[in-house]
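check this:
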Amino acid sequence: MSPDTDLGARYLTALVVARATSSAGFFAVVPFLGLWLVDDKGLSGSAAGLVVGGAILANRAGGVILVPLIHAVGQKTSIAAGYVGAALAFGTLGMGLGLPAYGWAALAALAGLALAMATTAMKAQISALPPDQRLRCFGYLSMAVNAGAAAGPFLGGLILEWRADALPLTAAILYVVALVAVPALPGAWREPARARRSEKARLLPERPFVVFALLVCGTWIAYAQLFTVLPAYVDGVIGTGDLGLVFTVNAVLVLALQIPASALARKVLARPRGGFGTLCLAANVLLAGAAALCAFGRSVGLGAVVAAIIVFTLSEVIWGPLYDSEVGGRRGRLSSTAAYAVSGLVWGAAESAGAWVGMILAVRHGGDEELFSGLAAMPFWGAAALALCTGLALSWNGQDRSDGGALQRAGKGYS
């Protein structure tokens, strides 16, 4: 993709359709995959957990494994190949085969790898845009992912009740729809050999990129407390139906706020000094406030959780696209494909570790009835402190860059 490419309606429509349908396909199946394997395929709980875990791990780590392949075939071809692979894997899952646990695990892992290939290549493709367009595009990408994340579980739940054996086939159809949108994405199906050699030669991250990726882990650890630990923390206080509506509110608010939030972020980034640092600090302060409100979820109830999710959404629409865009600006000599693969793996590992530790603390002290829910609330108070520290560190890190960073070098592009 040429750096001078302008974001037209055709490209943005194709991007949103491809990413929303692929996200819906993932979230229509993965939340219910374990239940489907146990009830319909007769797997044990531990075996089903292994299959689901393998799919998620492959989706998180697959981008790093597949970097050489993406370099070899090109970004646009990789997006198409990823959707084809996902459609075939989920289609095979839904063919009514009688497989042992490792057979289901292999198919689920192939689906995860295929999706990782498409997602990594799409982000690398967007990174070739000028900084202002890149941030705008990642805003639309965030909106599309949340639309799919909202629609997918709803659709999957309906299919599971109506005809459970059709669940994986539903995802396969959604990936075919995503594939139809790929030709409208910019770029050639086969990139010039010179461009592919240039990408391939840049595989090792440099210190500024490593520091940035590690600092951002603090945000992802805090994020995991709200989306993974919160349901276990408020179990018995807030009903699952009400909690499901809370997360739907998050998805709807992202759809409503993402475009104006991205436009505001571009204006802040246009400032000669401190734009990136100011945004990071503001986003993480909001995240800290949301985590603190979650700590009151067991004592105050639904009102505190609703307030928390609203504040969290205000944070998410800032840092979500901003971090993805900044990966492209901080990658240095690292290839764009490798940069998004590595950052995805590091941040996914941070989110997983944060969820694991948070769940241990929240469940172990689940009966604690002290003020502010005592020790059970530790994951949220810790997340609030970590988010504040992360915001301050990223603010300092952003303002300390001697070259101003890729986003601030292109300040005129945000006006």
